[in-house]
Write a structure and sequence with these properties.
rod-shaped; Serine Threonine Protein Phosphatase 5, Tetratricopeptide repeat; 8 helices; single chain
Length: 256
């Protein structure tokens, strides 16, 4: 009886031992799998970290490039603003100079009108009006210039005035207007000459006689003893027509 009981107990222990060994082996397998997964996870994590570091470096580089571009654009903007301010000041100075010239011309016109009213002066006709050979602007201008070269200044002035009146849109109109000023300049009526030259400047701004009109205005002011006005006019000539022969003469005369 006792022997049978011991045999049963021994069998149970053996069976129990086999079960524990199986559980141990299964647990060991699970641990091995977990260790493998942990190693893989660590490897992936390391790779992700490396990729993140590389991406971060690339982003840092892009930020640096963007900052450089922003600094460059700010520099360009500041330079543009400075240049715009400088150009604005130059335009304002030019407008002030132009307004001052116009004001002095207007004052001269008023003084001249008062003088004419006081003296009752009017240019007297000399000889008969010249009859142009042809009715074209060029022929009329040539005829008037021929009279001027002959020294009959009053007749030449009237002939040039006729060209301006009859052919105001022709290429000869600004030239004729300039020579009207030249007639008065030769007669030493400098105030009147200045006003006639001003008509060339204002009414024919794109004509070829504008630089000459500025120069002769300056010389007329100089002849009147108004050196400041002369320099103002000649400076305007040099500024607007720096490459003209008239500007070269002005520079030599007044060291502008």
């Amino acid at each position: 009886m006792k022997f049978k009981l011991l045999s049963c107990l021994l069998g149970l222990l053996i069976l129990s031992g086999c079960a524990l060994q199986k559980d141990y082996i299964a647990l060991q397998g699970r641990i091995t799998l977990l260790e493998d997964e942990l190693l893989k996870s660590q490897s992936v994590s390391k790779e992700l970290k490396q990729n993140a570091t590389k991406k971060g470096a690339r982003l840092d580089n892009r930020f640096d490039l963007l900052e450089e571009e922003i600094h460059r654009l700010r520099g360009t903007l500041e330079e543009s603003n400075h240049l715009a301010g400088k150009q604005s000041k130059e335009r304002e100075a030019m407008m002030r100079a132009t307004d001052e010239i116009k004001a002095r011309i207007a004052d001269l016109s008023k003084r001249l009108a008062n003088l004419e009213s006081y003296t009752g002066y009017e240019a007297s006709p000399s000889q008969k009006e010249p009859q142009p050979v042809a009715s074209t602007a060029q022929a009329s201008y040539n005829a008037a210039k021929k009279i001027f070269d002959a020294g009959d200044l009053d007749a030449a002035r009237r002939a040039f005035e006729k060209v301006v009146k009859k052919h105001p849109k022709s290429d000869m109109a600004d030239n004729a207007q300039f020579w009207i000023g030249e007639v008065y300049y030769k007669q030493k009526w400098y105030q009147k000459a200045i006003l006639e030259y001003q008509k060339v400047i204002e009414e024919y701004p794109k004509g070829n006689k504008v630089p000459a009109a500025y120069l002769k205005q300056g010389l007329a002011f100089q002849s009147l003893g108004e050196k400041d006005n002369a320099i103002l006019i000649l400076n305007e000539l040099v500024r607007k027509f720096p490459d003209s022969a008239e500007a070269s003469i002005a520079r030599k005369k007044y060291d502008l």
